[in-house]
Design a protein that fits this description.
Length: 96
């Protein structure tokens, strides 16, 4: 599949790494083609390749008119976002 998890199909959750568990959670969240995706650090435990796969899947949902609200510290996301809002101490601050 798109997230590279097919080879782990028969593993129990305790046998998966943190990044693998995160990819399973992302796949479960996207499987029903939601129109609204709320994502909190979806690429935090992922290597570059896996993070790009997740970004590609989310972008595909956006092309199908889904809306995405993502909270992240991952700078890899900033270049593909339509809008970036910066927060400091719980307040929105102007972008630099």
């Amino acid at each position: 599949g798109a997230l590279g998890m097919a080879q782990y199909l028969h593993r129990r959750p305790g046998q998966l790494s943190t990044g693998q568990k995160q990819r399973v959670a992302i796949a479960r969240a996207l499987i029903n083609d939601p129109m609204l995706i709320l994502a909190d650090e979806p690429t935090a435990s992922l290597d570059r390749e896996a993070a790009h796969a997740v970004i590609d899947l989310v972008k595909a949902r956006v092309r199908q008119n889904a809306s995405v609200l993502m909270v992240t510290h991952d700078h890899r996301i900033f270049d593909v976002a339509d809008r970036v809002v910066h927060m400091v101490d719980g307040r929105i601050v102007p972008s630099e």
